[in-house]
Amino acid sequence: MAHITIYTQDDCPPCTFIKNYLAEHQINFEERHISNHNYRNEMINYDAFSTPFIVLDGEPMYQVDLDKINQKFGIKS
């Protein structure tokens, strides 16, 4: 099964959207809230400066790409 990590922050509607979308499709994900300095630094090391920042199977996703997520997890849209 694919592994997905989402870097998030408070008051981020796209963060809420993608977390809810994955939860609706029973997809487990790891959330890393960037209030944690280590997680913020990890995100910056990817040259990512906005949330949600997604790492899907080790591949950074700088914008939410539902087609790629759907394909990876076998979600029929």
From TrEMBL:
Glutaredoxin domain sequence ranges: 4-59
InterPro entries cross-referenced by the UniProt entry: Glutaredoxin, Thioredoxin-like_sf
PROSITE patterns the record matches: GLUTAREDOXIN_2
CDD domains reported in the protein's UniProt record: NrdH (cd02976)
Pfam families: Glutaredoxin
Protein's name according to its UniProt entry: Glutaredoxin family protein
Originating organism: Staphylococcus felis
